[in-house]
Write a structure and sequence with these properties.
GO terms for molecular function: ubiquitin protein ligase activity; zinc ion binding. InterPro entries: PEX2/10, Pex_N, Znf_RING, Znf_RING/FYVE/PHD, Znf_RING_CS. This protein has helices spanning 6-27, 37-65, 69-93, 97-101, 125-151, 162-191, 197-202, 220-238, 244-257, 260-266, 269-274, 281-289, 302-309, 359-371, 418-421, 424-436; strands spanning 104-108, 204-208, 348-351, 356-358, 379-380, 387-388, 391-393. With 437 residues, it is mainly α.
Length: 437
């Protein structure tokens, strides 16, 4: 029979020590999970934000029905929302929605075996009823009692009146509750067990849902906020330095260059002829010089129309008879000249290219171009696209009529008008009487 090896001898000698360690581990209690105070405070803030988020749209909708509904039923509305949230969170699952986000749940300090508990929360129903009454019903009754006392002038009553005594008692109770809440919060920061007074009275505390507690700290949201804040500050610094009208003009010019008709003029004629596209020199030249409002009626100002297209205020008088549109107005109808123009020309001035504009509109555009630090020193006409070098007052030559035939056959006056037209005597007498007085 062979002798046992060295490792078998070591294993046999270590068996008593191993059994002793296993026995001690089975008898020892599990270590208490780590209590995170920040998670408990964050869960309370999340619950408050959720309640206000659900209540805000209802508060905005109530004044649309009646102006007094919000002031009359706002406490009841807040109590109803918090009651519904409490039923579907703490009562059913043993944790509020904020506590679930922080991976926390409620546990009761002493749970008797005969006590009936809810299915999801595993907390006695009496404890949950008392907790709901302390956290929901008591603040609602306090708010209603305080508003009733203020509306009936309890603080202004005499000191011997029962209403004044009730108000002083309510004030003392609120002061005591605030002081006890401060002491409880100090103790919570010390040991992290009971977050509120109701939790301490009922021995309910928040514990982690898992035995291994690991707090995942993510700075993704903070980094995103910092980036957006820096980007916003940069835009606030950059936007005042950009001339919006210059950018708009460049965009319009780029859109005109990228139009199909303009792109056809850049292609050679032979490939176009092979494709069956004919483009004469006259048409290509006209396309190059055609502006945005080339088809606008001659009795309308193109600058006024362009300004109206960017004016989104419907109360502006200049937009009263116009519709904001991106396409220019065409005047192929010969009767269009007889209609009342939507943008008439006031104090017409003719440009060097031969088009009419309002004096104020034309002067404003030319002054802007002259004052701006632009490469181009001239303003481009909105009708033909040419540079405007100068502008003069537009005058219409009226033919002089030397021989005006006013014979009696054409102009006959009634003899009855003599008695009305000769008023020199009456005017003279009136003036003499006035001077004599």
């Amino acid at each position: 029979m062979s002798t046992p090896s060295a490792w078998e001898t070591a294993w046999a000698s270590a068996q008593p020590a191993i059994s002793t360690i296993q026995t001690s581990l089975g008898q020892s209690s599990s270590p208490n999970p780590r209590i995170i105070r920040v998670g408990q405070l964050d869960s309370e803030l999340l619950d408050q934000e959720l309640s206000s988020l659900l209540q805000e749209p209802i508060n905005r909708a109530l004044p649309l029905i009646s102006n007094t509904l919000k002031s009359r039923f706002e406490p009841e509305l807040a109590f109803l929302i918090q009651l519904v949230l409490y039923k579907f969170s703490v009562w059913d699952t043993g944790a509020s929605y904020g506590a679930k986000l922080q991976d926390l749940r409620y546990v009761a300090g002493k749970q008797q075996g005969s006590t009936r508990t809810t299915v999801g929360s595993r907390i006695p129903r009496r404890t949950l009823l008392a907790h709901g009454a302390l956290t929901l019903l008591l603040p609602y009754l306090r708010e209603r009692l305080r508003s009733h006392a203020l509306s009936n002038a309890w603080p202004d009553a005499p000191s011997s009146d029962r209403r004044r005594k009730a108000w002083d008692l309510l004030d003392n109770l609120e002061t005591t509750h605030t002081l006890l809440g401060l002491l409880n919060f100090t103790m919570f920061l010390w040991n992290g067990r009971y977050r509120t007074l109701a939790d301490r009275l009922l021995r309910m505390r928040l514990v982690p849902c898992r035995r291994q507690v690991k707090r995942d700290v993510s700075y993704e949201f903070m980094n995103r906020q910092m980036v957006w804040h820096a980007f916003t500050e940069f835009l606030l610094f950059l936007l005042p330095l950009i001339d919006a009208k210059t950018v708009r003009k460049r965009v319009y010019r780029l859109g005109g260059w990228l139009s199909p008709q303009s792109l056809l003029t850049l292609l050679p004629e032979k490939p176009l002829a092979r494709l069956g596209i004919t483009l004469s020199q006259q048409s290509s030249a006209s396309l190059k010089k055609q502006g945005k409002y080339a088809n606008l009626a001659e009795n309308e100002c193109a600058i006024c129309l362009e300004n109206a297209s960017f004016n989104l205020n419907p109360s502006d008088p200049s937009n009263a008879f116009t519709t904001i549109a991106a396409t220019p107005v065409h005047s192929d109808n010969p009767d269009a000249q007889d209609d009342v123009p939507s943008h008439p020309i006031h104090i017409p001035y003719i440009t060097s290219c031969g088009h009419l504009y309002c004096y104020y509109c034309l002067a404003e555009r030319m002054v802007q171009v002259a004052d701006g630090e632009d490469e181009e020193r001239a303003w481009e006409c909105l009708r033909c696209g040419e540079e405007v070098k100068q502008a003069d007052r537009y005058s219409v030559e009226v033919p002089e009529v030397d021989d005006l035939d006013v014979s009696g056959s054409e102009y006959e006056f009634s003899s009855d008008l003599d008695m009305y037209t000769d008023m020199s005597g009456s005017m003279g007498s009136y003036s003499e009487s006035a001077l004599s007085e």
